[in-house]
Design brief:
Layout: H1 3-12, H2 15-25, H3 28-33, H4 39-45, H5 50-62, E1 66-68, E2 74-76, H6 78-81, H7 89-95, H8 100-106, H9 111-117, H10 121-126, H11 130-136, H12 138-162, E3 170-174, H13 180-188, E4 193-198, H14 200-212, E5 219-223, E6 235-239, H15 247-260, E7 266-272, H16 281-294, H17 302-311, E8 314-321, E9 326-333
Parallel strand pairs: 3-4, 3-6, 4-5, 6-7
Antiparallel strand pairs: 1-2, 7-9, 8-9
Helix pairs in contact: 4-5, 11-12, 12-13
Bound molecules: S-adenosylmethionine (SAM).
S-adenosylmethionine binds near residues 175 and 225.
């Protein structure tokens, strides 16, 4: 191999990502955070095969994540410490091979065959659609809710800055996840009522949030699917929802909103877009492949979003690219 090819091979190698993910999955960084340990001790604590673990640790040492002290015990380096969930909870959640995000990353291995056969990699690898899988396993549900809740505050803040509400608004957050948007809106506007329409696994998390924030008088949760009839309201949010679905499904969701809303109602879509002009092209390209792999969705251009809105019998009334690069579209019934 030419040395340039070696660089490209190194860049493409899956070895370090998978060894790191293995270490995080068995909580090795957390165990070493408490102090140096022998590999035999680590193997016993993680219920691992000692010989295999020794080989994993050797690789981690060669790549700078752990070091061996003179007594032959394994200790974390500064780099290795960054894998500890106490240092970066989000990173460790993303790296765990048995978390929802970890499983999405694992399904990237199916890209070549997915490309040829137009299949969704996640379902091909795990035998279930992403949300069927997440909903069927409490640990996956917990990890996905945690990830959604982690990203929610920045979305909620931007939405509150840009969307005006009537005092009598009734907000339906369609696929509203852990309820942070409805909580944010109803905490800011004290007369507004809100409802999260969600699958049962996330509905439970939203109910818990409303109870914790003492919002149950004005906020409720409805278990259900956004492919079925939606509850009555006047403002329907679709935040980070449409990009998870191929066009046919995204259109069905929009049609459900259009059917449910009154003549003066509106749908507010918040998604990333291709070519936002905000310097987020690499992030959007990354999310686009992730959607392709996880659920068969896609990141869209503003024109593609407008086309979907129009096909659902609505028209775009306002659109803004937010500072983060997210695109906020307000749509109402077509006149
Ligand atoms: C990417 S998350 C976005 C959550 C939330 N809107 C936010 O911005 O944080 C997409 C949400 O859609 C929900 N979802 C997926 N399929 C659904 C369905 N058929 N009916 C209702 N919600 C669904 C998921 O449970 C998940 O919480």
């Amino acid at each position: 191999m030419h040395s340039e090819d070696e660089d490209v091979y190194e860049l493409s190698s899956l070895m370090t990502p998978w060894v790191l993910r293995t270490a995080v999955t068995i909580d090795l960084p957390a165990l070493l955070e408490e102090g140096p340990r022998s590999t035999a001790e680590l193997a016993a604590l993680t219920r691992s095969d000692p010989s295999t673990l020794t080989r994993i640790v050797r690789y981690l040492a060669c790549t700078g994540f752990v070091k061996e002290n003179p007594e032959g015990q394994v200790a974390l380096t500064g780099l290795g410490r960054r894998l500890c969930s106490s240092v970066d909870p989000l990173l460790s959640l993303l790296l765990k091979a048995d978390s929802a995000a970890g499983r999405i990353d694992a399904s990237l291995a199916t890209l070549p065959s997915a490309l040829a056969q137009g299949q969704v990699g996640y379902a091909r690898l795990f035998g279930k659609d992403f949300y069927q899988d997440v909903a069927s396993d409490p640990e996956l549900s917990r990890s996905w809710n945690e990830l959604m809740a982690d990203g929610a505050p920045s979305i909620v803040e931007e939405i509150l800055q840009h969307v005006a509400f009537d005092a009598s608004s009734h907000v339906i957050d369609v696929g509203g996840g852990t309820g942070h948007l409805v909580a944010g809106v109803t905490q800011k506007y004290r007369d507004i009522f809100g409802c999260v329409l969600e699958l049962p696994y996330a509905a439970a998390a939203a109910s818990a949030l409303f109870a914790e924030l003492q919002l149950t008088g004005r906020c409720r949760v409805q278990e259900g699917s956004f492919f079925d009839d939606l509850p009555e309201g006047d403002t329907y949010f679709l935040a980070s929802v449409l990009h998870e679905w191929p066009d046919g499904d995204a259109l069905k969701i929009l049609r459900r909103c259009a059917e449910a809303m009154p003549a003066h109602g509106r749908v507010i879509i918040v998604d990333r877009i291709v070519d936002s002009g905000k310097g987020d092209d690499a992030l959007v390209a990354n999310l686009d492949i992730m959607m392709l792999t996880a659920t068969g969705g896609r990141e869209r251009t503003r024109e593609e979003i407008a086309n979907l809105v129009e096909s659902a019998g609505m028209q775009v009334q306002k659109q803004t690219v937010l500072a983060s690069g997210r695109f906020l579209v307000e749509a109402g019934r077509a006149k």
